[in-house]
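Troubleshooting: if your tokenizer reports a length mismatch, compare your output against this known-good record of 763 residues.
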Amino acid sequence: MSDPLRPANRLARESSPYLRQHAHNPVDWYPWGPEAFETARREDKPLFLSIGYSACHWCHVMERESFENGEIAALLNESFVPVKVDREERPDVDDVYMSAVQTMVGRGGWPLSAFLFPDGRPFFGGTYFPPEDRHGRAGFRTIVEKLAEAWRERRDELAKGADEVVAAVENANRIAERAGRETLSAATGNVLTETLKRTFDARHGGFGGAPKFPPHLALEWLLLKGAEGDSIARSMALKTLDEMALGGIHDHLAGGFHRYATDDRWLLPHFEKMLTDNAQLLSLYARAFVLTGRDLYWRTARGIGDWLLEEMRGEEGGFFAATDADSEGEEGKYFVFTEAEVREAAGDAAALFASAYRVRPEGNYHDESTGRATGKNVLHLSEEPSSEDERRLAPVRARLLARRRLRVPPATDDKRISGWNALAISGLAVASSILGEPRYLEAARECAGFLLERMRDGEGRLLRTWKDGEAKILAFLEDEAYFALALLDLADAEPDETEERRFSAEARRVVAGLRRRFARPGAAGFTFTGAGHEPLLVRTRDHFDKAIPSAPGAAARALARLARRDGDAALASEALTAVEEVSGLMERAPHGTESWHLAWEELRTSGLLREPAAPVAADEADEEEEAASASHDGGGGPVRVSAALSTDRVSPGEMLEVRILVETAGGWALTGARPLQVDAWGGPDLRCTAVELPPRGTVTHEDGSTEPGYEGRVEVALVFEVRAGAAEGEHPIAVSLRYRACGEGTCLPERAFALTVPVLVLG
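Known-good structure output:
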């Protein structure tokens, strides 16, 4: 944090809390705007662009190390025009230059660092830079010196590179066109479901490895498919929601979730808490409760909702953007506890609490940047507590929370962002109906009123941000699209017919404005910026979902939702045209285009399309599900998998064995460092206690070489324990397998799939 005793720079006049954090840096910062670019042209200097946000840990690190360094600041001020941008205020600027940096270095993130010509073309970029050279990597001081020299002596070379970057960004922006089109049908969503099954982490939930971010839209899709009868989709969604709710990414004391986990088990969080994440997770946990009736989902959803109302709602209206990861200059300091602190607060329940929440004398939390043990503990659960244990744990959590609130809290970014508030309206509206909580509905109404009354300009257009009584910056596509969806969610939740009609009418007005301002002239779909926005290097159209839904995807979904509600075939046709343009991406990159798949599902099932795709016959669907539950033939390839149960009927407290038989055709074998990987999950009532693979044999290839692997018949034993209080009825066991098959002089790509084995639990 900058020194408040140092003279202020131009950022002191800005409303953004993030920009104000840098108001007393020795760097001569400019906010994004004409003054900075005019200064660069007049003084013949390049610009240094730094983009971040208030809750960004590594942004704080780079500020402390470089922007507070007087010598580095002097070098920047002498040779560059430094510009600071709050990505949450200007997502359009962030989107353009993030694409540019990803083009230049193959990755992105925040803080985002880019060096620009006075006309805005980027010629060098990266993310966080250490202040000095480190481990063979150039430090920020060296980069500033070398680029200043290049500007003086090799400017033509820099200009050529900048032109190539701009061309690449423009080309990347046409990714939907390059992907082509596919025929949309009832089977279109299958490619998304199957992709999620292949990439699912059956051991820890989620998709892929570390770091792990809450996969909001993937979970929404899987819950939808689960409700329609896909037991594997249901299992994947619930497994992920379970692991997140039990993990350290969940704030077990105050409610709500941290941004992401730095590990693959959801245990060690990045501690910032974002409105966007929690708004989306609120509706997901509420929907999971409807699907299962489990207390874990009810408590988790209530925890998120109560945290939003108690800690994130401003007195003037609306919800704050985020809370910081750092306090007192240290990440996570506010949230972690020593064992002694826990035992003092827990009293007679100390042993139970320490065991339940994995509290260790040596601590379980390691500093991310240094890897050193801190002696502190992140609270997380290994399993859902019983009702009796929960009764004893709840008072301890309350006492620990009271103690935590005596500490110096992380800073809160109290600006209101219209699109993010719209996500909160949706989450609260959905949860209010499911959980029967009128406070959530009232909060959603009030937030909608705040956006409608205090975040519009004189022409009635939605604005992006509100801070200290002032709303500013014309709303972007994401703000308008999310708000349209929020108003529709609110209308659906309204028991009062007058209020329902009012919010429906407001949704129609927002959709009409969205179509007018953001439609592509002479083409399908929408752009992120629209009429009235500052022209940038590229008018972006980001089709991919990230931490929040794709703006054009959300817009298409809003049109589809409204069309279905009003029975408007013309509006449905317009939404269909937007989805069709992205159909190639939906086929080739399904995990990342979930918002488009959800829009298509809305349209497909609306009954409004002139030529609806033929649905899969019920008997065919049943046959496919039955086959998937029993075996997998590798798509006609050399590997066949089947499953068998020691018994298909078990009672609470008993053990169950599932045997997975993997058979390779003659001349084929499973090879590689891990030739066969098997994970399984049986939900909260069937706990997998062992996965027993046979020892690897020796595989001899046609050329006479050998390596460890499996060939012929391979039996894998999965042992499950049925919880004593397990509910009666059918319980699906989800089994995930990965393997690589080699034979006949070739090796096939690694295959991954899941199958379901149903088990009947009797009382």
